[in-house]
Structure formats: structure tokens, C-alpha cells
């Protein structure tokens, strides 16, 4: 069993995470909120770039890629169905 | 003189907004020297039922909070240039995020048409959208189209015509915030209205004031100064 | 009455970070509720895009496919442009006879014929026949890839590399735009939200050869690098040379980005979000017609606006004599010693200087300079063109150096104007001019030195 509290950067392909908080400020925070990374939203890790970073996430029906710098500051809980 | 009505196209990137713009205006458009995607604001024209329309293809943006140069361009156009109609283009396969932008536009201006594009692609995936329900809950016309296959165009053009001729009226249903914010808005709103009578929606300006949108403040200061100059010249005619 | 400033202060006192979150949160909540009420989703997810992504962004195949796509686009452009180019040249050439007869019939003085036909007509038609076909092919092919949704995947695949150079993954998108037109690409850097990385993208965009330089690069590499081959093989070698050059430009881009992000543009990479939209089959016919039509028209207009005056000016400079040499020859002689250092000559440097308004006119101006009459020969066959160049002492090294200089040198006038408009800084606009120019001098200097030291020439 994995720890259920995690950041998006820890996610593995296929994981669904429920966002609890965003540890970012300023324009990046606004941008992430605009894209649907809002507390309470469900995010699915879709795939990693060939070089390992960035990672693509499915959020509010769209696929958005984030670098580790940002995804490691988005906290949430593992929400996998299985 | 140009007595054409102006229609601004707003929307998220990748919603087929440029495709819709192209399909509506054909080759009657003037863009930059690059045939690719929208890099600056492209304009085109359209005729329907004897009326001339200028279409303005605003940059595709995720929101209108002016986080980037493109967002500022789009926001300034909708709020300050006051197009006769703002057409918000949504991607039918990604409604949730797209509606977010539409709701922002509804706070900014009154005459809005929500255009759900890529409807054929969505239906093929099995997505069903009840546009009548959305129309009721948003207070503005919601129309399903496919820019690619020119589906839903008659209805879209007809709706544009009916808004221009005032056969139908748009009454955007506002997004209600929590009590604390609503109370602050109601305190600020009258002051905003007093300050700039013909300015942008006072509710929206109040929200942005509370947001701390400095860029908007600078823009308003600039525009208000200009308007005062216009006022003195308007007395002449 | 309260002023805006007062209102602002009042609002600031009541505002907080949570409020902004609350506003966005409410908007999303309402979106979600609207969707729950008005949109019905199927049980089964659409997996087409995910399946394609599994291939196009795969750790194993992602990079080879990217390289293959780049190669394919270039090959299609180069091989496809060959025939229409020579057809156009023949067509414009065949009109010159009747045109001359008309001038004789109307008793128009020789110097007017010189300006209008030898200068203006040959100059502009040359630009059209060399530049138009590659563009008319490149743009639709590129637009198809763009509309299909492949470009964001390139940015996704390459981001790590851009990041290590201190730049933004979306810079690969603005670079891709640069293949079309650097001036437009500078505007397209607006998609990069953070100012530092945007500046890097603006300053280095020029290292991607735009369409105005393609004609020169294709022509020189097929004349001097692929001269021993024929047919499809010739196009293949030409393509490989061009890809090599493009790769070199990309290496320089990373190098300059890296150096700048360690010095003048210090800072940590920030603000990265990139959407990977679903793949959509583009409307092929519409895309092809629209992008080739609009682009062709733009090229024609540009040829008339920029190439025409330049052609007239060059003709006049080539026909006004001071002492026993024309103005053109004097300038070229003055520049010659420096040109030789770079493995070029005075005429080539002069052509690049006069070509500042638009890269399209560099080669026509050069040819006008070489021909004592100061005008182009009747657009001419490729063999004839090579003869002219060889008579002026050209070797493969001259061609290589000219290609390198073309790839690396300062941006064209339009691009510089756009850079100034976008950065609103004289200092950075000047840097955008200076950095490439210094590199464009150093690199040919080194190749020339190396070639001579090793006895390759």
C-alpha cells in the first residue's frame, strides 16, 4: 500500500489524485487554477515525457503537462478506484 | 465610414476557434504575413441578411485574468472596445474547462453567444450536450456547431441577427460568490459605477479590484483619461 | 468624488489570496455543475489520442519519429520545389524577349529598360521563382502537422533539453514557427508566459532558417554539396545537408540560451504549463489551399515591396561609375579583405548588408553584383548559375561559409522591428542584432581557418 498523501510529482502513470492544496504563488498559481488544478479536482497522471520530465496530467477533460518544479508543489490524495 | 457590427471570437486554445473564424469569413480576412495560427488579432468580414459584420479573432486563452500578453489583448478588446457581440467558442469534448472561460466572459459583457464547437467529434465519442438547459442556466444563447463541417451555421447566423435586431435579449445569469465576497462587491459596485458611467460592467470591475488586478487598473486609468478628452470633442456634434 | 486610486486602495484593504482562489473556485464549481446537468458522458473513454501519444511520445520512438518528420518535411519541400522552380524561371525568362521588343517598339530609352527589365523584372521574378515553390509546399505540409496536433508533442518531448539550457519547452514551438518566418515567430513567443524565457526565445529564434533563407540554402547545397548526384538522390543529399545545418542552428540555439541564462538573463526556469490537445484529422483540402494561397500572396507582395526597390537600387549602383568601376564594385572591393577572412568575398558581404530588409533578396543582389552589367542574366539554368559563381572563385567552402553566414547572421529588418515592438527595449533589440552577427563572423572564420590548415581546399 502506498501512502495516500502525495504530490503530483510522485504520481505514477494511471494514478488518480484528488487535489488538496497548491503550494505556489503569483502567476503560476493563477495559471494552474485557470487550467483546473483547483482543490477538490480529480487529476489523472497520463504519461511521462521520453526524458522523464515533464509529466502529462488529465485535468478537467484536458491533458496538461507540468514540470517537476510545479507538480511537486501540488498536494493531494491518491484516489484510485482499484 | 464603416457601419459594420463587430463580433469578437474568444475561447480556449485548441477549440477550433480559428477554424470557425475561417469558415465564417472565407478568404475575406486580413492577417499578418504568416499563414499559421493566430499570432496577433486577425480580422475578417461577413454578410448576413443585409448586415455587415467584422469578425475579430482574439488570441486563444485559458482565462481572461490577464496572466499573459495574449490574455490582456483579449480582455481589453472585450471590455474596452465593446464588440456588439462576443462569441465564446467552446470545445464540446472539454466542456468543463471551456465553460470556465465562458463564465468569465459573461461577467464582462452582456451580448454573448456560446458556441459549442467540435460537436460532431463529441457526438462520435458519445458525449451528449443539452444546449437548451445550458441556455436557460446561462441566460444567453448556446448553439452547437461544427466549424469543420459547417454544421449549425444557419442557426448561429440567425441568432447573431436576432441579437442585433433585438429580437432576443441576452441576460447573463451571474455567478454568485460567497457572502463575504458578495458583500464586498455590493459595497464597491456603486462607487465603480459613479466613477465611470459608460465603463465596463461594474460588477466585473469590482471583482477585479478585489482580485488585485493591477494591470487592469493601469489600463482603466489610461482609458478614462482618453474618454474625458473625447467627451469635450463630442459636444461639437 | 472618489478616484480610481482611492477605490483601488479601498479594495486592496479587503482583498486576500484566498479571495482570488475562492473566485476561481466558484467559477469552476459552476462549470462542473453545468456540465453535470447539461452534458452526458459515455461510459467508455475515448482512447485514440492516448494510443497515438503512446507512440509519438514514447521513450524509444519519440525522438526518432521527430527527426523523421523533420526530414520528411524538408525532403518533400526540396524535391517538390525543383520542377515548379525551373518552370517558373523558364516562364519569366520567355517573357523577356517580347518585353524587350515592346520597349524597342515604344522607343523607350535604354536606361529605363535597364531599370525596369534588367533590374526590377529580373530581380523580382528571380525571387518569386526561387522562393515561392518551397514556401508553397512547406507551409501546407507544416500547417497539416500543426493542425493535427503534433507540435505540442514536440514541445513535450524536448522540454527537458530546453530546461537544461535554461529555456522553455514552448520555445520549440516558436522555433518551428521560425522555419516559416522569424518575424512572425517573434510575435508567437507570446505563448511563453515568463518574461525571461520569452526573451531567450526571441533572441535565438533567428538561428532557425526562415523561408526567406531556404531558397539560398537549398540552392547552394544542391549546387555545391550534392553536385555529383542526380535525381532523387540529389534531393536526398541536399536534404541531409539542410538537416545538418538546421541541427547546427539548434545546437547554437541551446548554446546561446544556456550562456545567456547563466549571464545576462539569470534566473530559474519558471511557469511551465503545456496543453496536449487531442489529435484531430485536419481538413486537408482547406488547410492546403488556405495556407498555400495566403502564403503565396504574402510572398508575392513581399517580392514587390522589398525585392523590387532593392533590385532597382542595385541596378543603379551597378551602373553608376566612379572612375573605372561602378559604385557597387567600389563597395565590394572595400569589403573584400574582410570577406576573404571569412572565406567569403566583398560581394557576398555587400549582398548580406543590402539584404537586411529581407533575406529573400540576398542571392539576387549577389548575382547582380557579380555580373558586370549590374543586372541578372536571364534567370538562367542551374549550370549557368554555378558557372557564374565558380568564375568568381567559389568552392564548396565558399558555399558552406555563405550557408553558415546566412543561417547565423542578424535577423531581417522586419524581425528586428518586431523584436523592438515586443521587448520595447533598444538594448535587447541591439543584442538580437549583435549576438548572431558575432557568431556569424566567428564560425566561418573557424571553418576557413580549419579548411586551410588541413589543406581541404
Structure notes:
The complex is a heterotrimer of chains A (82), B (237) and C (457). Chain A has 82 residues and is an alpha+beta fold. Chain A has a single domain (5-78), classed as Ferrous iron transport protein A (FeoA) (SH3 type barrels). Chain A has helices at residues 26-35, 68-71, and strands spanning 5-7, 16-22, 42-48, 55-59, 62-66, 74-78. Chain A has a six-stranded antiparallel beta sheet with strand order 1-6-2-3-4-5. In chain A, strand 3 and strand 4 (55-59) form a beta hairpin. The relative contact order of chain A is 0.33. Chain B folds into two domains: 5-164, P-loop containing nucleotide triphosphate hydrolases (Rossmann fold, 3-Layer(aba) Sandwich), CATH 3.40.50.300; 179-231. In chain B, 46% of the residues lie in helices and 17% in strands. Chain B has a seven-stranded mixed beta sheet, sandwiched between helices. With 237 residues, chain B is of the alpha/beta class. Chain C has 457 residues and is mainly α. Chain C has one domain (59-453). A two-stranded antiparallel sheet of chain C has the order 3-4. In chain C, strand 3 (321-322) and strand 4 form a beta hairpin. In chain C, helix 7 packs antiparallel against helix 8 (182-188) and helix 8 (182-188) packs parallel to helix 18. The model of chain C has no long low-confidence stretch (mean pLDDT 87). The A-C interface holds A 25, 27-28, 30-36, 38-41, 46-47, 49-54, 56, 60, 62-67, 69-70 and C 17, 20-21, 24-25, 28, 31, 49-50, 53-54, 57-60, 62-63, 156-157, 159-161, 163, 169, 193, 268-277.
Amino acid at each position: 500500500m502506498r501512502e495516500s498523501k502525495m504530490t503530483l510529482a510522485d504520481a505514477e502513470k494511471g494514478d488518480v489524485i484528488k487535489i488538496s492544496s497548491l503550494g505556489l504563488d503569483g502567476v503560476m498559481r493563477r495559471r494552474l487554477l485557470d487550467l483546473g488544478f483547483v482543490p477538490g479536482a480529480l487529476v489523472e497522471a497520463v504519461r511521462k515525457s521520453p526524458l522523464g520530465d515533464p509529466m502529462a496530467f488529465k485535468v478537467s477533460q484536458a491533458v496538461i503537462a507540468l514540470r517537476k518544479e510545479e507538480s511537486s508543489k501540488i498536494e493531494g490524495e491518491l484516489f484510485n478506484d482499484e | 465610414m464603416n457601419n459594420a457590427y463587430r463580433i469578437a471570437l474568444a475561447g480556449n486554445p485548441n477549440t477550433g476557434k480559428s477554424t470557425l473564424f475561417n469558415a465564417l469569413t472565407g478568404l475575406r480576412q486580413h492577417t499578418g504575413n504568416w499563414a499559421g495560427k493566430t499570432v496577433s488579432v486577425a480580422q475578417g468580414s461577413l454578410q448576413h441578411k443585409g448586415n455587415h459584420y467584422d469578425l475579430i479573432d482574439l488570441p486563444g486563452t485559458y482565462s481572461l485574468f490577464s496572466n499573459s500578453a495574449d490574455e490582456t489583448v483579449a480582455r481589453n478588446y472585450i471590455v474596452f472596445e465593446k464588440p456588439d457581440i462576443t462569441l465564446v467558442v467552446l470545445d464540446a469534448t472539454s466542456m468543463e474547462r471551456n465553460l470556465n472561460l465562458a463564465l468569465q466572459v459573461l461577467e464582462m459583457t452582456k451580448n454573448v453567444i456560446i458556441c459549442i464547437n467540435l460537436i460532431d467529434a463529441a457526438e462520435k465519442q458519445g458525449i451528449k450536450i443539452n444546449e437548451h438547459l445550458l441556455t436557460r442556466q446561462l441566460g444567453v444563447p448556446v448553439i452547437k456547431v461544427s466549424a469543420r463541417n459547417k454544421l449549425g451555421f444557419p442557426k448561429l447566423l440567425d441568432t447573431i441577427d436576432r441579437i442585433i435586431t433585438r429580437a432576443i435579449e441576452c441576460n447573463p445569469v451571474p455567478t454568485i460568490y460567497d457572502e463575504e465576497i458578495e458583500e464586498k462587491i455590493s459595497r464597491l459596485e456603486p462607487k465603480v459605477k459613479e466613477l465611470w458611467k459608460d465603463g465596463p460592467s461594474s460588477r466585473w470591475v469590482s471583482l477585479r479590484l478585489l482580485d488585485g488586478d493591477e494591470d487592469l487598473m493601469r489600463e482603466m486609468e489610461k482609458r478614462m483619461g482618453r474618454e474625458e478628452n473625447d467627451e469635450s470633442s463630442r459636444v461639437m456634434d | 468624488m472618489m478616484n480610481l486610486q482611492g477605490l483601488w486602495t479601498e479594495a486592496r484593504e479587503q482583498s486576500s489570496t484566498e479571495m482570488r482562489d475562492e473566485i476561481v473556485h466558484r467559477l469552476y464549481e459552476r462549470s462542473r455543475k453545468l456540465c453535470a446537468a447539461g452534458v452526458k458522458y459515455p461510459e467508455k473513454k475515448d482512447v485514440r489520442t492516448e494510443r497515438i501519444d503512446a507512440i509519438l511520445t514514447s521513450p524509444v520512438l519519440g525522438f526518432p519519429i521527430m527527426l523523421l518528420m523533420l526530414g520528411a518535411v524538408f525532403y518533400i519541400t526540396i524535391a517538390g520545389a525543383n520542377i515548379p522552380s525551373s518552370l517558373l524561371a523558364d516562364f519569366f525568362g520567355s517573357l523577356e524577349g517580347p518585353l524587350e521588343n515592346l520597349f524597342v517598339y515604344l522607343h523607350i530609352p535604354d536606361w529605363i529598360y535597364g531599370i525596369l527589365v534588367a533590374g526590377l523584372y529580373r530581380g523580382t521574378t528571380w525571387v518569386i521563382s526561387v522562393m515561392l515553390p518551397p514556401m508553397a509546399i512547406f507551409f501546407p505540409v507544416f500547417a497539416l502537422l500543426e493542425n493535427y496536433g503534433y507540435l505540442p508533442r514536440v514541445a513535450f518531448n524536448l522540454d527537458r533539453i530546453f530546461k537544461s539550457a535554461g529555456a522553455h519547452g514552448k520555445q520549440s514551438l516558436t522555433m518551428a514557427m521560425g522555419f516559416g518566418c522569424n518575424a512572425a515567430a517573434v510575435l508567437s513567443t507570446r505563448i511563453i508566459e515568463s518574461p525571461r524565457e520569452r526573451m531567450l526565445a526571441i533572441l535565438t529564434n533567428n538561428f532557425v532558417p526562415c523561408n526567406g533563407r531556404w531558397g539560398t540554402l537549398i540552392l547552394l547545397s544542391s549546387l555545391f554539396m550534392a553536385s555529383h548526384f542526380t535525381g532523387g538522390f540529389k534531393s536526398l543529399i541536399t536534404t541531409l545537408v539542410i538537416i545538418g545545418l538546421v541541427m547546427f542552428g539548434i545546437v547554437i540555439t541551446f548554446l546561446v540560451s544556456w550562456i545567456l541564462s547563466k549571464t545576462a538573463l539569470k534566473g530559474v526556469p519558471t511557469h511551465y504549463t503545456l496543453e496536449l490537445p487531442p489529435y484531430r484529422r485536419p481538413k486537408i483540402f482547406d488547410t492546403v489551399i488556405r495556407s498555400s494561397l495566403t502564403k503565396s500572396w504574402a510572398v508575392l507582395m513581399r517580392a514587390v515591396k522589398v525585392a523590387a526597390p532593392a533590385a532597382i537600387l542595385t541596378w543603379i549602383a551597378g551602373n553608376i561609375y566612379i572612375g573605372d568601376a561602378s559604385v557597387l564594385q567600389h563597395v565590394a572591393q572595400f569589403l573584400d579583405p574582410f570577406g576573404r577572412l571569412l572565406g567569403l568575398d566583398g560581394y557576398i558581404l555587400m549582398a548580406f548588408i543590402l539584404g537586411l530588409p529581407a533575406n529573400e533578396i540576398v542571392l539576387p543582389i549577389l548575382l547582380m553584383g557579380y555580373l558586370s552589367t549590374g543586372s541578372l542574366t536571364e534567370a538562367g539554368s542551374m549550370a549557368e548559375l554555378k558557372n557564374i559563381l565558380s568564375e568568381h572563385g567559389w568552392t564548396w567552402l565558399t558555399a558552406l561559409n555563405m550557408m553558415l553566414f546566412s543561417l547565423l547572421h542578424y535577423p531581417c529588418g522586419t524581425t528586428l522591428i518586431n523584436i523592438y515592438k515586443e521587448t520595447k527595449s533598444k538594448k535587447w533589440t541591439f543584442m538580437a542584432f549583435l549576438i548572431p552577427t558575432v557568431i556569424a563572423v566567428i564560425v566561418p572564420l573557424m571553418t576557413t581557418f580549419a579548411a586551410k590548415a588541413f589543406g581541404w581546399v
